[in-house]
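quick one, 281 residues, struct below
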Amino acid sequence: MREFRDANIVANEVSMIRAAGDKPVILVEGDTDTRLYRKFMMPGPYVWLIHCDGKPTLIEVMQILRGRGAAKVLGICDADFDRILGRTLPADILQADLHDAEMMIVHSPSFRHVCEELYEETLSDSTFQERRDYLLGVAGKIGSVRMWNNDNHTSLSFKDAWPGNFLTESGGFSENAYISKLIEISAGCQCSFEDILEVMQNRPLGIDDGEWASGHDFASLLDRDVAIRTGRDGYGRDAIEKFLRVSFDVTSFGGTGLVRKLRDWEQREDAELLICELADD
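---
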């Protein structure tokens, strides 16, 4: 059975680590984030990386530690819809570029290599861009429904409505079938088919699809699109997400806005986080 870790448990763990030495502690949302960011941080015990079982817990842990006056503790989490909604977090919590870590990877050079392995072909620039942007656009539409659902408490359940299941053999996305599935599996939802369709088709302009799109939705769409185009069974959404994380290398991470913010934090706190390949010149 997995150990339950609430905010006080994690905060106490961090406090004990900090009391034992002057090494920085990085808090992340979950296990997958620990494995992703560990590649770019100095190894333990020079830097401690601890997961918090979710963004709300991470924010609460940081609040507790702030109240205790803890130094050299930093949080890293997904942005989700924060930037779209104009929400800001304290300076000691940094966010991934775009919606989440997977979107940060999809917009990095490493994603091109993943695509060529998955599609089993060398992609021209235009073909790569076209396929990526189309899937991002679909995932972005779904993201707008997710945000609307959160803000309006309409009780939609997305758990068993995997977007990839609604990509057609011709490469299109069946919005009607997807919305019908959402309503079917969402007992007591407080919205209609027409409400959801309106949100999908009329989201605000001028916002990057990567801010709207969830990595989970995009991975599901990519898996299905690869299966359609190659004529074989899909790997599954979880496997696609693993491929993305494994592919994310030092060069790609070094080009993100997040790594620049990490360097700024290192200077302010007089701490060393990043491996030498990412050290500021």
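Strands lie at 25-28, 48-51, 73-77, 93-95.
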